[in-house]
Records
---
Amino acid sequence: MLTHLDAQGRASMVDVTDKAVTDREAVAESLVRMLPQTLEMIQRGGHPKGDVMAVARIAGIQAAKRTSDLIPLCHPLMLTSVKVELSVEAPDAVRIQARCKLAGQTGVEMEALTAASIAALTLYDMCKAVDKGMVIEHTRLLSKSGGKSGDFQAEVTSA
């Protein structure tokens, strides 16, 4: 059942007024594949735009905080923690993992997914001049906890 529909079948923001405040957390990831020489340039700090991974991390954090401005019908949330980590997957990929937390009446899955996606897009944007063939893939929710719908843990896959 789609929960973003009102009694007349129109799209609407879900009313969370009567939902209990619980601790909620979500983790999402995205993978950016690139040429090995592009990744090597990023790792050695040789990119002319500076620390590409630091900029992508900041972009992901900022995006999580602005999710309700980007995704229609998302509630504006007071996040208590946003962490975006980038790790090298040898020899041609960067894995981005975003973790969002709050104590609230609705979940943070969209915030985690937005953070991972925007960090990946930022990495692409900063490196596109040297590697237009980069691919963003496997953006997905890894886990969520808290709330009425309960916990979720994605199956482990090899990306």
---
Amino acid sequence: MTDVIAREELAAAIEAGSVTVLDTLGPGYYEKAHLPGARVLVESDVESVAGQLLPDRDAAIVTYCSNEACRNSENVAVKLRALGYTNVRAYRAGIQDWSEAGLPIEQGVAEAV
């Protein structure tokens, strides 16, 4: 089981700029809505993209997807840990919880890696 992070702690980390947030839903969902500063990393791309996207294997990383029923965030976190990333947590409540709490959401196209 992946370590989890609560909304309040994640919001503080985003505000402080101390975490890399990964949207695991994919580009289509990302364009419509994503957490502030999030980058896209889907499960099928972890092995090929993680090294470029996340060069510091000890940096704080949080994965998220839509809600607790979605397993993408968990799956990406597990793969990142298998690649040697040491500080990966999942925001299991996901963007649904974030937006229902009235926290800011961004829109737009993901940067290419």
---
Amino acid sequence: MPLNPEPGTAGYVGRFAPSPTGLLHAGSLVAALASWLDARANQGRWLVRIEDVDHPRCISGADTAILGQLAACGLLPDEPPVWQSQRSAPYETALQRLAAAGKVYPCACSRRDIELALAASGQTPDRHGERVYPGTCRDGLHGRIGRAWRLRTTGVGGMPMHITWQDRRLGSQQQDLSTEVGDFVLKRADGLWAYQLAVVVDDAAQGITHVVRGEDLADNTPRQIHLQRQLGLPSPRWLHTPLVLAGDGQKLSKQNGAQPLDLKEPLQALQKAAAALGLPPATATSLPDWLAESVQAWATLYPLPEQTVPPLVA
């Protein structure tokens, strides 16, 4: 099986989409390796997208350094990488389509406003829990100035928006967007594009058919499915991988001090990532052979269902 097939040789298109707020660490390598293995196991294409819409948090040079880390591990994309910071025009087009259909509305609420509204209604979210938007601006700004844009999460006649989906590892999943998330932001008050809109527009533009990413992003999936449906875009297949945990039991991340990968020995870093994914130890000692052996192991661990390319949502 070729490790880097020619683009267009299969219907499968996957991607790895790091944010350049720092270099890859052990947890992000797990996500990168999983998405690469899934694409290669299914004779598909693997793309890399630099998700830098939140540019105040991005570190200069981290994007190219990440690409270098991936190359050192033999994880090479089949097309030139895409930078979200260069794609404002299609995001604006999508927002205007939603506005014309009455599916989004301007919002003047600050985080403090939302906290006060929730407290007034007797809600006390956990410190790191979801702040369900109370709908303050849903029916008008009432003289205030709207700077952010929110997507409605209620169905016909104000019915709750209940989303169900199937994950290849986690199984059947569901979420009531109306009560568990509320109307969510697509464009922030500071003018920056929100992750949800950018990722949905770009997945469609790049023809992504399968998303393989960390389990911490699973609760974003219903929001993205809802937005895909509102824009008439296809929904990919989903697979959310196990997380690498820090010493305190929390997800290993840049925010809690995860150290950049030491890639003096790329194979050792990959072996640790494969173990976190539940793959059996590969016997090969060279990087290309180890990757090829791991592709075969992945195909056994996470076989695709018969229908691999999702249909267009009506």
